[in-house]
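Researcher: Re-running this chain for the archive, since the previous output was lost when a drive failed. Same request as before.
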Amino acid sequence: MAGGVVPIVGVSTLEQLEEAVGATELTLEDELRARMDAPC
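Model: Regenerated structure tokens:
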């Protein structure tokens, strides 16, 4: 949810919902984020 981007997720089970909500606590290191944002 970096940069004000909030993803829309669809889930089928409570477990999927819990995993998606838990992902909001994830913090990526700047280097990893830069690699993910870089063009292929």
